[in-house]
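Hi R.,

Here's the chain you asked about this morning:
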Amino acid sequence: MPAVTSRVASVSQRGFYIPGLDGIRGVAVLLVFFGHAGLGNIVPGSLGATIFFFLSGYLITTLLRREHEKTGTISLRAFFVRRAFRILPPMYITLTLAVVLASVHWLPNSGRAAGIWAAILYVCNYYGLINGAFHLPTGMEVLWSLAIEEHFYLIFPFVYVAFVGRKLANEVQARILFTVCICILMWRILLVYVVHVDLSIPHPWTYIATDCRLDSIVWGCLLAVRHNPWFSDPAPLFNRHKRLFASGGFVLLLLSLIIRDPAYRESLRYTQQGIALYPIFLLCISSPDLLIVRWLEGKILRWIGWISYSVYLIHFTVLSELRTVVPNLFLAGVVSLGLTLGYAVIMRVVIENPLREWRRVRLWEQRQ
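And here is the predicted structure, written out as tokens:
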């Protein structure tokens, strides 16, 4: 059994779960919410998206690695079924709701059929880049990040199956993933400093294109295969200086937010943030007794983390609509937060939990 923490080990029989990661997810979605709520100059909403990316890479890779070490194989069919049931219903329901609200003129922008289909097919990030607009109902522009994650889900499981099929050592896997991160960094540098892509638009290519942002996810994959506390991977240097490395990570994150040069922000920033998050995640996973980790494991942040997916899906639509009817920015934000959390709770109780239970029952039946 992985010797991470007693709290993690206590739930290991029910599956892979690290409480602090739900807290990190809660922090990430709050950063995004308040960044969109008019506090973008104070709250780094874009960092929230990067944290989500890193977390996805770590979790998905850890689950694949855990399955392989437990069973000796990886079921791609089961992986894609789990992802589909987890991701598609809340997203399609929320998008349908936005389309309906726009059709009765409750939202100022109803979008276009092509943009809606692009969202349904998880290519709205490239659709928005090619057409200069997402053409989605108001607030659904946030689906660009889900498109990047979905592209990752469609590619990486096959890559990891190839890794374990060829019996590549974890060190070799890590070197390959690190090379991918560096190649994507070089691609962004080329686009920014040689091609001179337009950085003045709200969503430049380097910000929402999968080919420019996939490394934010791959950094999490790298942690999962090389220094994963869940598997007690050896990390002697980090274990001796874990707080120092994590502190350095926080400094790197802070610098990535302070430096405002557009060329830096669209080239080096995402790599710097990926490097910074690496030791921070390592510390949070391997040191549950630290005050900051106990804070992340608090009930409120974990609860927000549990419902964060639907919060992310609906929050910008609610914020955009409330701003048009509530003149006070603070009041609009408070009401929007309440409505957003309420919607996410309903989605969790009515859609996500029943689907999770149904999958659990089906899995149990298949094992009999």
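One quick note: The chain has one domain: 6-367.

Cheers,
M.
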